[in-house]
Amino acid sequence: MPMILKTIPATILLLHIGSYAFFSINGKISPFELFNMMLLVANIIIFIMFLKAKISDYTIGLSAMFLIGSHAFIGQFLAPDSLTSGAILLINILTVYTGVQLVRHLPSCYWYAFVGSYFALFWLFILRQDNAEALFLASLMGLCAVARNFRLMSYFWGFVMAFSFCQPFAWEAAVTVIIVLNIMFNIRGSFSSTPAKFALLVGLVFIFLVLLPVVSVLIGEDPRNIINVLKDARVLSALKTTLISATACSVILLLVLTPFAYAAARLHFPGRNLLFALIDVPIIIPQSVAGIALIKIFGREQVIGQFLYDTLGIYFDDTLFGICLAQIFVSLPFFLKPAIQSFENVPANLEHAACSLGSSPAGTFFRVALPLAAKGILIGTVIAWGRAAGEFGAVLLLAPSPESVPVLAFNRFQSIGMVETAPLVAAFLIFSLAMFFLLQFVINTMKSHNATVQ
Amino acid sequence: MKTLLQIQDLRVTKGLFSVSGINLSLEDNDYLILLGPTGSGKTILLRTIAGFNVPDSGRIILEGNDITGIPAYRRGIVYLSQHNDLFPHLNVYDNIAFGLRFNGMTSWDISQRIGKYIEIFGLQNLVRRDVRTLSGGEGKKVMMARALAVHPRILLLDEPLGMLDHNARFSLLEKFMEVHSKLNLTIIQVSHHREEARFVNQKAAVLNMGRIEQTGSVEEVFSKPVNVFVKDFIGK
């Protein structure tokens, strides 16, 4: 055995004995406590084994001696009692054993990640959280179990971080982190590079933060409360109002503006760009302002509103028509933009070919342009539907009754409070998301025809 | 032979470029190759005959009727652009049947009519295929079958062989000549390859800077070029 391997254990042993004597004389430790004596005896035994060359793995032997020695006095100040200190000592030795195995069989980055994780956990549970030893021990065992695999290790850290820092939303955060990590680990394709991955990660985190309220409303509510809310007649009638008005709104947009979108995409006329800019106006106008503007034109006392009432018997204040009108106003750009875009994406030469084969302009529209643009138009319709169903400000001003769901949620929130409104909000969220995903699913199963024609 | 198409003093402007002073006369069952360098106005002329460009002046007369103001879909002239114009939402069969579907034909009649063209172009194994999976040559054949199925008075081919390799080009050109003689078809084909004109060896017209420099049979144009430009163009 080389000389150095005798000197190091001897030094550690001497330091151990020295500190033992020093702290005993100072009165910091009681020299005859069983645990302290056990530590000393254990170190002496290991040293003797070293001398007799009975130890096959020097690294583990030395580490064990070092850990026992340091626990003999650091443990005095950090651990609340000797039993905890002993448990941590055993786990530490297990950890070192795992670490040594790692450094022998895996690339060195695993070793660094492991050591770093150990100290991070130590800081997190022993120093920061003021002696959460049980958690520290449990998480160390977890660390030893996952240390062979970076992916498992990052899931582990996702859990640990979520439970340490996101306390009231620990589960939500943990699930989110695991989803994000799963996406990051499954990146494929020739464009995957570190900057691109980083950009993706930042974007994912940001999007999840934005969606966090939605998730928490969905997860945080007792399903029984949601079911109870759905038995409320007022809620049911509000759901019906919203469903009917939003559907009517998107059907009207679809029927009236699809031909217009085609014409706008194909024809060139003065003011075309100005018109395209004007389409976006409802997006930039605040909803309340839009509501007031609508009242100013279509209110029953106003000229146009009066005229419509006198001639057609339709009025908009506090009617389903009013809700529909407000919804059409705000959702129009969300339908029109994708519709125009998808007609523009239909290659003009296909329509020329159809025309040349004897197809009339109307025939060409129905047999070439419309089928090829259908997917984009339907996506626009779905988004417009969602926008219409969720419209609050303009509806509140023009037609606060019959009550639609957003207005009902607002009224409840104002009169009763947040806790009582939460089940209603959750119910409406589930309803909207279900509709949205259903429609998206239908659209995604449609055949896509893009990316073909040069 | 009787005159099928007559173009009188045609002038078309597209942006800053104009094609002018075009006089052409085509007889039934002619195969005219429009030759000319890039940017000489071949495609504009062809698209004007098809009805996609409105001429500034001049007349286009088809079988004695002035069709200058008639929209493209009622002219009975089929134009094949140089792009892949197959409808991506339809399969090969429905693409070929496209032009017949609004004439009140029964699907039995349609399949009878189309079967002939599918056979001529050897497309029997492709009828149910997604058109996006076809090769360039196959796509051109389907486009030809689709055009012929509507029984056009004149077929306008805009560089139909542009993106094909040498062998595919000449075998497809042979196919064009075959249908031309077999179906008594009138074809105007745009090309900037003099070899194609030589190969077809019928009529040719040479365009330059928006004007027709020379018309006549291919032999005539190639042996007696009227000016330096034509001589350079066909001799290079």
Give an overview in words.
The complex is a heterodimer of chains A (454) and B (236). Chain A has 454 residues and is mostly helical. Among the domains of chain A are: 72 residues; 219 residues, MetI-like (MetI-like fold), CATH 1.10.3720.10. In chain A, helix 1 packs antiparallel against helix 2 and helix 14 crosses helix 16. Chain B has 236 residues and is α/β, with parallel strands linked by helices. Chain B has two domains: 156 residues, 3-Layer(aba) Sandwich (Rossmann fold), CATH 3.40.50.300; 65 residues, no CATH class. Helices cover 34% and strands 27% of the residues of chain B. A six-stranded mixed sheet of chain B has the order 6-7-8-3-9-10, with helices on both faces. A four-stranded antiparallel sheet of chain B has the order 2-1-4-5, with helices on one face. The longest helix of chain B has 17 residues. The model of chain B has no long low-confidence stretch (mean pLDDT 88). The interface between A and B is medium-sized, with 24 and 29 residues.
